Amino acid sequence: MVDKKMLKALSEQVTKEFYSAYLYMSMASYLEDKVLPGIAKWMRVQAQEESCHALIIFNYICEQGCKAELGAIKAPPSDFKSVTEVFKHTVEHEKLVTASIHAIAELAIALKDHATKQFLEWFIKEQVEEENSSETMLRQVVRLEDEKALFLLDKEAGARLFALPLPLVGKI
Ligand code: MG
Q: 1.10.10.10, 2.60.40.10, 1.20.1080.10, 1.20.1260.10: which CATH number matches 4-158?
């Protein structure tokens, strides 16, 4: 069992991860509408990963013999000014998620909850990757935001494949 404060923080993180998935689906929809199916696929994979993050935390709450308290998922924005704005928003959002994961890690330290601290290490590493991949996409989009160059990036981004995160292998 984890402490009540920790259960609340982990449950809220499940909701935040599902919101991330929802946000990226909304962005994928915007990109589909702009006829950029490759970049939309990149964003769909991003959304799938976020759903997995939610499940990994949900599984951990269950493994701890606790009951998750799932909150409402708010509606994501449905329109964006440009592809650049989509990726600026993605980078900002990933920074918020990193801060949220770090806050839970700090709570685990304060509560001397070593199991949760160790559990969160995968997420801490994952966030380094998430920030890096979204920043790389933003830099490419900023450099290439003319029609022809976006078309080329669309081909490359469309090659992104979804892989089940290691903590979920054999668990869904
Ligand atoms: Mg995530």
A: 1.20.1260.10
